[in-house]
Amino acid sequence: MPFNIPILLTWLRVALIPLVVGVFYLPELGLSRAEQGLASTLIFIVAAATDWFDGFLARRWNQTSAFGAFLDPVADKLMVTGALLVLVHLDRVHPIIALVIIGREIAISALREWMAQIGASKSVAVSSLGKIKTAAQMTAIPLLLFSGSLFGIDTRLPGELLLLVAAVLTVWSMLYYLRKAWPLIKKLQDHKPEA
Question: What is the Rg, in whole angstroms, of the alpha carbon atoms belonging to the chain?
Fold first, then answer.
């Protein structure tokens, strides 16, 4: 397993996930609900920043690796899933929206793994649609974790709207990836050996 600053930042993101969740469930911290929201939001923002920063450094310093390419999306999915589960528990996100987002992540991860096994991973490379979905999601989650007044604006409403946009884009991007993969899936099905 290679070890460098970009991978260290990715591991830091993984380590921050329990903190995003823990601030709501550790009574020993003695935080009010508003303090919990602020703390989890700040931790989530730091974790999200490491996502951009580790990729930037890996490319800039030419420290990309197969392990880093594996760990980075795993850390992202764990971070989003952990935050969404907390938000569902706090009744700030509808369970169906969380299920759509988490289910899509699992389905597309499985599709990418399978496509990589058959040597067609470029067919399901990250699209601009997926990047817009991620941006909406990564903006919505801290707004919903905070769930209070910021500069006179209740962050919950824009957070809910952005997460709804992310959920729609989640389904759209999943259909996009499946459509791109379908010719290969069909081709493999058509050439399936007889039993």
Answer: 19
Residue with tokens 């951009």: 52
Taking a C-beta distance cutoff of 8 angstroms, is the pair 63, 57 a contact? yes
Q: How far apart are CA 140 and CA 137, in angstroms?
A: 5
Contact 81, 102 (CB under 8 A): yes
CATH of 5-190, one of 1.20.120.1760, 3.30.750.80, 3.40.1050.10, 2.40.37.10: 1.20.120.1760
pTM for this predicted structure: 0.85
Angle formed at CA 137 by CA 66 and CA 178, multiple of 5 degrees: 60
Residue spans of the chain under pLDDT 70: 1, 120-127, 188-189, 191-195
For CA atoms 40, 78, 155, 25, give the dihedral sign.
Answer: negative
pLDDT digits (tens, 9 = 90+) for 111-161: 877 777 777 666 566 668 878 988 999 999 999 999 988 888 899 999 999
